[in-house]
Amino acid sequence: MAENRFYATGRRKQAIARVWISQGQKGFNINGQGVMEYLQRSNLKELVERAMKAAQVEGQFGVRALVNGGGKAGQAGAVSLGIARALLKYNDTLRSILRRNGLLTRDPRSKERKKYGQKGARKRFQYTKR
Asked: Could you say which of 3.30.1440.10, 3.30.230.10, 3.30.1700.10, 3.40.50.720 is the CATH number of the domain covering 2-100?
């Protein structure tokens, strides 16, 4: 059983996903729930399943992911990256397909910090000369 399981980690914004794909099993399980029950939006479900569709291995693997941190969109992106990396461990020849679809690049964008003495990261208090 252990030889048919592949593990990878995916990150996006503040979310970290630990992903296991198991050959021969079916279904997606994120934090003990189904994909639609957990993410609740169809576009996030499609984002999670993108790596499997690009590699044309839908239905061949069962996915189990433990995600924490961030919001639902960041978590979906983290799971997607984790699945793509796990698929690489399964078959390294999928690299060019996954790379072409942009699934192996970790998105470095994160929330910009609020600056001291100001209202937010970019927003400033209005200046008046008086």
From this structure: 3.30.230.10
Q: Which 8-state DSSP code applies to residue 40?
A: -
Q: How confident is the model at residue 130 (pLDDT cuts 50, 70, 90)?
A: confident
Would you state the structure tokens that stand for residue 113, as one six-digit string?
Answer: 């910090």
- Is 2's pLDDT higher than 70? no
Confidence band for 105, pLDDT divided at 50, 70 and 90: very high
Gap between the Cα atoms of 3 and 127, Å rounded: 64
- DSSP 3-state assignment of 68? strand
> What's the full length of the chain, in residues?
130
